[in-house]
Structures are given as C-alpha cells and as structure tokens.
Amino acid sequence: MALEMTGEYVLPVARQAVWDALNDPEMLRRCIPGCESLEKKSDTEFAAVTLAKVGPVKARFKGKVRLEDLDPPSSYKIVGEGEGGIAGFAKGGASVTLADAEGGTRLSYRAEAQVGGKLAQLGQRLIAGTARKMADQFFSNFAEALAPGSGKGGKKKG
Amino acid sequence: MKWTAIDDFGIVINPMIVEGQVHGGIAQGVGQALLEGAVYDKHGQLVTGSYMDYCMPRADNLPSFNVDYVVTKCPSNPLGIKGCGEAGAIAAPVAVVNAITNAVGHEDVPMPATPQAVWAAVQKSAKLRKAAE
Amino acid sequence: MSASSIGAPVRRTEDRRFITGRGQYTDDIRRPYQTHAYFLRSPHAHATIKGVDAKKASKMPGVLAIYTGEDIAKDKVGDLICGWMVLSKDGSQMKAGRHPALAQGKVRYVGDSVAVVIAETPDQAKDAASAIKVDYGVLPAVADAAKARDPGAPQIHENAPRNTIYEWALGDAAAVDAAFKRARHVTKLDFINNRLIPNAIEPRAAIGEYDQGTESFTLWTTSQNPHVARLVMSAFIGIAPEHKFRVIAPDVGGGFGSKIFIYPEETVCIWASKKVGRPVRWTAERNESFQADAHGRDHVTHAELAVDERGKILALKVKTTANIGAYMSTFSSAVPTFLYAPLLSGQYEIPAIYCEVDGVYTNTAPVDAYRGAGRPEACFVIERVVEVAAREIRMDPAEFRKRNFIKSFPYQTPVASLYDAGDYPGALDKALQLHDYRNFGKRKAESERNGKLRGIGLSSYIEACGVAPSSLAGMLGCGVGLWESAEIAVTPTGMVEVLTGCHSHGQGHETTFAQLVSAKLGIPMEHINVVHGDTDKVQFGMGTYGSRSGPVGMSAIVKAVDKVIAKGKKVAAHVLEAAEGDIEFKDGKFQVAGTDKSAEFGAIALQAYIAHKFPTAEIEPGLK
Amino acid sequence: MASVTLTVNGRTVSADVDPRTLLVQLLREHLHLTGTHVGCDTSQCGACVVHVNGRAVKSCTLLAVQADGAKVVTIEGLAANGKLHPMQEAFRENHGLQCGFCTPGMIMTAVELVNRKGNNLDEHTIREELEGNLCRCTGYHNIVKAIAAGAKAMR
Amino acid sequence: MYKFAYHKAKNVKDAAALLKKAGDSKLLAGGQTLIPTLKLRLAGPAALVDIGGVKELSGIALKGKDLVIGAMTRHAEVATSKVVRKAIPALAALAETIGDPAVRNQGTIGGSIANNDPAADYPAACLGLGATIVTSKRKIPADKFFKGLFETALGDDEIITEVHFPVPKSAGYAKFPNPASRYALVGVFVSRNGSDVRVAVTGAGEGGVFRVAEMEKALQKDFSAKALDGIAVKPRGLNSDIHASAEYRAHLVGVMAKRAAASAA
Lengths: 158, 133, 624, 155, 265
What we know:
The structure holds five protein chains of five kinds. Helices cover 27% and strands 50% of the residues of chain A. By secondary structure, chain A is of the alpha+beta class. An eight-stranded antiparallel beta sheet of chain A has the order 2-3-4-5-6-7-1-8. The longest helix of chain A has 23 residues, at 124-146. Chain E is an alpha+beta fold. Chain E folds into three domains: 5-50, 2-Layer Sandwich (Uridine Diphospho-n-acetylenolpyruvylglucosamine Reductase, domain 2), CATH 3.30.43.10; 57-166, Uridine Diphospho-n-acetylenolpyruvylglucosamine Reductase, domain 3, CATH 3.30.465.10; 170-264, 2-Layer Sandwich (Enolase-like, domain 1). Chain E contains eleven helices and twelve strands. A five-stranded antiparallel beta sheet of chain E has the order 4-5-8-6-7. Chain E has a four-stranded antiparallel beta sheet with strand order 9-10-11-12, sandwiched between helices. Chain E starts with a strand and ends with a helix. At the B-C interface, strand 1, helix 1 and helix 2 of B face strand 8, helix 8, helix 9, helix 11 and helix 14 of C.
C-alpha cells in the first residue's frame, strides 16, 4: 500500500526558528505520533520506537528516522521506517518546504507512506485513513508546539 | 440475472454430479468477471490478503442456473465421454463481460467489473451519448 | 440392491461422512509425538537476506528447531521444479530461475519463506517466529507483468534477463499478415485477464513423518495428485527414495488446480521430519493461502480479428504477456502456452491464427493452473473479439457465431488442435431457445422503462480436456506422462475394489466410478469400493486436474473391467463346462450362450480364488 | 490456564486451556471433534459454525473461555440415534456438497436459519442468510435447493 | 494469538476495576472484531476483560421518549426485537445488515460503537438519531462521541453501558456494502424528529462517521428523496481504496441518502 498526502500550515514564527525546530530531536519525538523513544545516532539519524494504534490494531515499530536532502533553512526530507514484527513494516517520508509568508512562515509538505506484510494484506480499508491521520498529526503537533493555535489551521489535500 | 448454459459432455455417467460441476465452474467464472481480483501495489505488496478485500462469490451474488446438454459422443475414448470439470469456468467470464458491455453500449469494461467499474462505464456511456447528440 | 445404470443421477456415497463431520482431511489427522511448523514469510516483495538471527527464538519455550535456506542447501535438498519445458521462438530453452524451498540469499515475493520454526505447539512456533530477526536489504520490485520487461525494472533472477522466461509463439505469422491485408474489417482489443486466487475452502496442509525403523517416509498432504508429488519430491528434490516414500492425499477440500503443485511447505515438512525425528505438521492460515498458493490467470493481451465482407473470419492475431510470478511453479510454463494458444480457434473456422506469448517473472506469488488453466483465458480472447466484431459490423452476435462455426469433423485448427466431434450450432440454438433470446429486446426495453440497463452476452467455448499421452505432448516439452491407471481387484466374495490414479477432491469419483463399474459388471454399487489418493495402494497415477478423470480415468477403468470380464469368462468356461467362446457376460451373470446354464459374478470370483476347476498353468488364480 | 466446563453434543466436558484457545481449537484438538473446520482467519467463511446455546456462531471467533457453561452442538451431534438430521439428508439428496469442507458449517447455519425463520424459506431469503458461509465448489445452486428442502423436512 | 491474561467481569464496576488494574488491557464484548485481530497478531494486549457475563448490560426497553439498548445486546436481538421494530424500524433493519447471521448472534452494539470502525453501521445510527451514549462514568451525546478514525471520547477504563436512541418520527438507513467485507462502502442514516433532521454517513469519511448539513437543510424543508436532488457531497475528505474512489463514494452518498430518505418518508 503506497499513499501520498500533502498539506500546508502558516506559522507565526520566523523561518529560521521553524527550521531549528524541524531539526530538534526532542521536538520530533513530541510530534511523531505514538513515538516512545527517539535516540540520536548522528545529526541526521535517530533510532526510534513508535506505537501505532489503529482501532483494535496495536503494533510497536522499531526503526530509524533520518533527515535527508538538507537545504537550511528551506527544505529537507524526513524519513522514517520501522519493522513491526509479524505485523509487517511501515515506511513514511515527508518533503518539507519552508517559505516566508506574511506574518511568518509557510510550511508545506508532501508526504508518502508505505506499509508492507500483514498490515498491507489485511488492513486495506484502514491504511489510507491512518497514514493521512499520522501525517496530519505530525504536522499539526509540530505547528501547535511551535505556535499554539496554529495547528488547527492546516490545509490538507489528498 | 438469467443464466443458461448448454454443454456437450458426450455421454454423461451421472448427470447430478456433472451439473454440480457446471454450477461450481460458472460461479467461479462469474466471480472472475464481477468480484475477484488479486491486487498488488506498485511495491509488490499484496493488498488483497483476506476475504475482507478479496471478494469471494457468495450465495447472494449468484442466481440459479439453467443447465442443459447437447450430446455428441467423443470418438477417442471407449465411453464417448468428454471432460466437464472446468467447463463452467471457461465460458462464464466472457459471457458476463459481453452482457455488461452490451448493456452499457461500449466495450470499455474491465474485469472484475466491480460496482465502481460498472459505475464508471455507465458514466462513460452517458458521455458518449452526449457527444453523439 | 441392484446394479446402477449409466446416466442415472445416483446420490453420492461419500456424502455420509461429509454431512456427519466424519471426513478425514489432512488437518484432521493426528500423529503421535507430532510437532508443528510455522513459516516465517518475507514482508518484502524483493530483498536480499543479509542475515537471519534466530538465537533468541531458538531458546523460546517449545522450540525444537529453526531452519533457513542455508540448512536446505547444506542438506543438498533439490530445488522445486517446473515440469514442462517451453522453447522460445528462437529455439532457446526457457530461463527458469532457482526455486529453493526456503529462500537462499534473496526473497522474491511477499510470502516467500525465509525460515521455518518447528515447535511443540502452533502458538509456540509462531511466538518464536516473531522473535526471529531478518536483516533485509530491500530492492525495488515489479508486480505488473506489463512493466516487468521495462528497461528500469529490477532483475528478479540472474539467469532471466529482462525478467523474460520465454518468448513463445504458435501459428503462421505470414498467413495471418496476408489475411489481415485482405480484411474488410479489423477488430482490435486490449484487455487484462485478472489475477485470481483459487481459494479452496480447505487451506493447504501437510504432515511429514519419518520412520527410523524402516527408514521410510510418509507425507499426508492436500494434493490433487499424490503420485506426481512423490515422483517430483524423490526424483528432483531428492528428499526421499521413491520406494520408501508414501504420499497420502486423504479427503481434500477442493483444489481447483491450486493443489496440483509441489510446494515448499510440504517439501520442508517431510525433510524436517527426519531432522527432528518426529512428525512435522503444517496447516496454512487463510492469509498464507492468499500469499503463497499459486495464483491463476494474470494475462495482458492485445488481440486482432480480421473479417471479410461476408462476415467470415479470416484470421486472428494475439499477443499476450503472461505473469508467471516470482518462481516457476510445477505447471506454470504450460498454462499460458500449450493450454492457451491451441484453444484460440474456439468453435470457429479461422483459416490463420498467430499467437505470441511472453512469460515474465514478477515479484508476486507464483502463477499456475487455476480451474480452466489457459482455456478460460483463450475463450476470453476469442469470445470477446468475436462479440465485438459482430457488434462493429452490425451483425447479430449469435448469427455471426453461427456463420463461422466449424460444422464438419474432424477439424484441424491452425493452432495444433484437432477437433474430433461437436455440434456447435445445435448447442447455441438450444441455449438461445431456452434463454428466450428472441424476446431479449422486449426485456431490455422494459428494463429501460424502469431506469435500468440490461445486456445479454454469449460465449461459446471449446475445451481441451483430459490431455492424454501423445507424441505431440512429448514434442511440446511435457515432462510427465498423461495417461491414467486403474485396477479392478475382485475379492473371493465378489466384492470389488477399484483402484484409480485419479484423485477426488469434491468431484464425486467414489460415486461415479462405482456407478460405472456397477453398470459394467451388473453388481450393486454397495459391492464396490473406490480407492484413491494413496501411493501405497494405487500403483501409479497422474491425479485429477484438467477435466481428465472422466475421459482418461474412466477409460482406464473400463479397460480394467473388460480384463476382469475376460478372465471371468475363462474361469466360467471351466466352471460351467463350456467353451470360452460360448460364455457371455450379461447382467452380472456368466452364461453359456443359448442355454440356461449360468453363474453369478460372485460365484465365479470365488471359483477364481479356489482355483480347483481350472488349470493354474493357463489361468492364474484370483480375479483382477 | 483457565478451566472451562461445557456441554458438547449432550456430554459435559471440562478442560484446562490456555486462555487464547479458541472454541474451535477446543473442539478439534482437545475433544477430537474434527467435523468443525477452519477455512479462514477473518471470520468470513463459516466452515466453523456451531451452535452455542442454540445460536449459530463462528467457533473460530469465540474463545473457549467465552463458551464456559454453554451448550454446544457440533455437526457430529446433529444426527440423533444414528438417524440423519433432515437437513443432512437434504444436503445429500440435493447434491448440496462436493468437497465437503464447508458442509458442516453450512448445515449448522441452515438448521439455525430454519429455527429462526421457519420451514418455508424462499430462495432469496436462503441466499441472503448464507452471507457468512463460503462454498467454492457448488456455486450454491444445490445448497440453496437443499436448504429449502431440508427446511420443509424439519417440520 | 499472543498470550494474555483473561478476566471475567461480574459487573460493570468490576470490569472497570479490572481494566484499570490490568494496565495494557482490552475489553472483550462480542469479540467479532477483537478476536480476529488477536488471531492475526495485529495486537497483543496483556489482558482481556470479558463482559460477556454481565447481565445488567443486556436488554432493550422503551423508556419515556427513548429506546434504550444495553451495550451487550447482540445485533440479532436488535434486528428481531419487537420493541425496536415498532419504535425505530430503521434501526432493526440496520442491525440486520451487520456482518452475517453468525456474527450478528455474537457481536454487540456496545462493541461496535466503542470500536468506531469508519465503515461500521451503528455509528451512523447513533449520529443519525442523535443518540446518547451512556458509560460507566457519564452520558455523551453522539455528536461528541465519535472523534475520528477508530477514536471515541471513551477513557481507558470507561465502559459503554447503554445507548439511548430518541424515537424519531421517521428514519431510514441505506447501505451499499463493500462487495468483499460487506462493511459499509457507504451507509446513510436519515431521521426526522420534530425540527431535528439528521443525515449521518458512514463508510465514506476519512475520519469516520459524519453529518451532511446541506442535506439536513434540504430535508428540513421537504423530507423526501426528491428534496435531495442535485445535492452532492464533495470527494475531498472521503476515503479512497481499491474498492471505491472518493468520487465513487461521493456519488454513493447521494444515492444512499435518497434511498434512506425514501425508505423513511
């Protein structure tokens, strides 16, 4: 199952500050939905454990989060992948772009997610919604943490 | 749905059993035409890994079938019989697709012709009709 | 009790055990000290295996052993094979990649087995499997047959460049081209024959058992052809010597082709039973069936039909790409070639046909025979293109078919098949009449008044069923015999055992075969027992698939019955003190022609065993 | 371990089971009643249907401990005193089975259907009520006939 | 299944206490969704608390203007109950379309609502009738109960005890089932209770069940299928999967809404 999602937020914060937050491990840990631990391995690589809960399904994913294609303070790609044991695996990535906007910064993202193994075979009707929800959650958590109140104003597209 | 099948199995030993074979084959053929399809995504993940997504024909998907025979003896075996196990599954899918394309008035209908596929085909017929007017 | 007759709707004798829950399917069998296998399957469609860490798993409760592809290789277990060689247009052999029972170095589809855990209970095996860590190097994958040969597509097997197994063709390309030039009308169509999963309601299962005392193996398995399974596993995979290897296919809950093949799981069960020294059993969960049973169909096809000004078909041209999956399953090469192209003439006189088929690897489950196997795909091609052609030239599709039907037999098609008999217009007319085809227009109009669309579709089919041994089959690369065996063993009390190499998994052979023997021998069906599915009981056989049990299996039975009658006549001649030539067999009695001297079938059977009344130098005792 | 006591086909049985044991596993593995089959893992195929306190349920989607104290009837318990149940007879008479694997679940579903909806069942009702039972062999044609006949015979 | 501890609750209080004590635990009602999930090892709670034996949670009764259904009431009981059939026939009809007969014999209304599957039927009825979900702790209006995909307002040790459905003047439900799973590809529940007109859609929305204001407005003026002519929901925000695109679902919402209204009117 492979899916693509896009969205954008306008944050009343300067571009550099948004960029710094995007690179802050503690910030990432707080924003990644279900993230139980995020351990820094290098400036751009982290070991992560996340607990994914979708209705009756509950699976713990152990894996990595990587930051790629860094172009400060304009864009990067955040990529995560994890193995969920018998449940299968999940991968997700989002290309994040920052641009100056009136009164702050426009954050736009293009995210994609892919699941494999049992989750893909059995969770067909749950995956699209879940992936979208996770992407939304990450960015709205991020916006909310950076500027309370701005997390609800995001625009999401398919 | 009205279904008629005429088969030539040569000499039939037990018609009850042979008709049962035909029924089962037709059901699998209708399944292929309307319901069943294994789907892999672009990464090679099977996304139809259970009966939640792979649609098996159920009793309420199917009609009863009219089954009858013509008989020509098979000259190449001592009993004059022909095989019957796969018959229903062979002729059925294409009969269904021919019927749907006949109904919608154009040939662009994929298998399986799921509700969504038929809906799309009906939309297309409407467009074609409009263009023709 | 009286004899049954051919053509009677006799109720099934096997039903009693099924309707009372007394069937014996593979998973119903329990063996002393049995263990349970669970297969750890790849969640990736294409990946290298960089390492398998089973240390933690192997110490978990109940775990007896964990094996990987390395262990299979170490024990020199042979690869699974494809039993039908297909040659490409250029004469080169098909490019079959290796197919080990447990993946070695690389996984090629989601569901490819990486390791097997053998434990005391199924739950323990599964618990341990979830603790095995596999380090995968994920590779790009291709699932779509139409894209498998793209320049950028990942290479799945090293020895099959561009994922191409073969580029095969049948027919006369030049004749077809010439005919298309003469055509008044050409119909062109593109379509996909969708991929199906057979889904017998009984999942596949196997129990392997090794007897250390006799150094012999027994495999209970959900097979449509136990003898072929034994042959392939001993001759090619090399797990057990054929004469010390018993394969039993007990009650089998549907097959539809998917249980013909020799799969990795039963191979591993029988191999591992010797290694752990205890019976090893495995039953698929439905989710595993979806992943790892051989799938069916999956063709991408372009077809063109040339028609002349009188509505006569001139030629057919077909180009198909067939998805073979990640490995070549037992019959996989033959399904989209020999079982497909020779049927493309359908019921029609088509002077020229040319068909090209490319078989390609993809990162999907192996694709093999599923009910019809190639023939539904062929029927789909010809019947779609004929239907559309009729609509395009504005001729009634039934009329168009009739105009092109083959009417005299034997008929040689341009695609190898020779048709021996048929009445195509008769069948179609009967169908049209029963269906009230004439008034379809009225029904359609009425539906339209109700805001609904109504359509009618026809299809006429021809099936090559019961493919039999022939020099053609040999020339075409078939690696197994296609005949069938039957043995009729009469006991001293006149009871009859029918041993057949066919296998019943829902077809009702126990009834039909007994009915046939009853009619031929004039004895009640209750006196007949049909035995199948056990290599220790039946000398040899090819099993049941391809609509073969009737034409091939029952033909063998008839020949065996004739032998019993012939021998019975010899015995009866001595018993009734008449010349052998004067003995007639009728209604279950041996009778001296023109007299009232006769003996019942059972009485002659007894005399055959007592053997006092005839010279044993000339006639062997017993009745077979 | 958890202990369960239930009545199966009129006989009281007790067992100590791991709580994760399904009713169908209790029947098949502990009691060797292998007539109840498992054909899927998502509760759709119906090969495992048995009666629990008179209601048809999927024994692969019920823990054995959930059935503690219940009256369970399986396909093996349907025939009384060696005489086939009318629904069993009807399946045989109407060729309502081929490979036989789905048959026990079909029959158990059919018997409960008649208990709920009576002896006169039309084709539409029967087909709708078979939503939870898959058969791959028969195309359902003869199963529907068998159930209609069996329903009448159960009167 | 992974190993778990099993607890049988005696009553609601006991169940809540067990849930709290067990930590990583799950409430087991009918189990028709939970058990397959456990079997496939897509979840592995440390404990299950079985409320199958809690008698006080079962039952159907008319109380004042409300139809009250206990959380452990099976779908089959709702489908066949004379009380339901008289008070809210659309609800009985809806219950009869859930799963299959064997699933209906075991599955419960409370389990279905607590799970809030985006394609389940009951959430449409709750939202479409303006039901109140009563829990071991409080009363929650349906409008505030369903929080998106599989999410509800329920706390960790909070247990649904009853659902109160106001008896409407008329109501209807129409469902287009997913051909494979038979869950709702799209299901629409409409009701009219005085001036309160509701249209609730299940199966279609990314975030689960939702109401359609525009349709409600049109039906307020004229409670008939015809009133919905020309009203279309937008594909944006609707589910898209191998069975149906968002566009097709949007189309189905219109068709099912009309059918539901026609059956209600």
